[in-house]
Amino acid sequence: MTTLNLSEPIAAYFAADTQKNAQALAHCFTTHAVVKDEGHTYVGIDAIKAWKAAASTKYTYTTEPFALDHTDGDQIITSRVKGNFPGSPVDLRYRFRLERGLIASLEITV
Questions:
Q1: Whole-prediction pTM value?
Q2: In the chain, how many domains are there?
Q3: Which of 60, 75, 85, 88 has the greatest number of beta carbons closer than 10 A?
Q4: In 3D, which of 26, 14, 12 has the Cα closest to residue 66?
Q5: Residue 1 in domain
Q6: Rounded to an integer, what distance in angstroms lies between the CA atom of residue 17 and that of residue 7?
Q7: Which residues constitute the domain of residue 47?
Q8: pLDDT along the chain (110 residues), means of 10
């Protein structure tokens, strides 16, 4: 596995995701953060927490970040995701925008 130098909120996001801890994951985000995933948009801490809790209940999966790029002020992490979902394994791109040490937006794409 490649060791990446992830910023603190992004490292915390992946750690909470690995632990399937929606509460800890929600603490990585600003109050009005936006997450876009699978054609849906989630705005605010409560919506983000519900999104992650639902995904963690529906699927069993692991994530392994292996690449980091910087584009237009965003940090883009590519991660191999393996689990019991259609199309597994898949490499997903996580596009993070940070504000004041927290995640302000996240877009997850293939």
A1: 0.93
A2: 1
A3: 75
A4: 14
A5: no
A6: 15
A7: 8-109
A8: 84 94 95 97 97 88 95 96 94 98 97
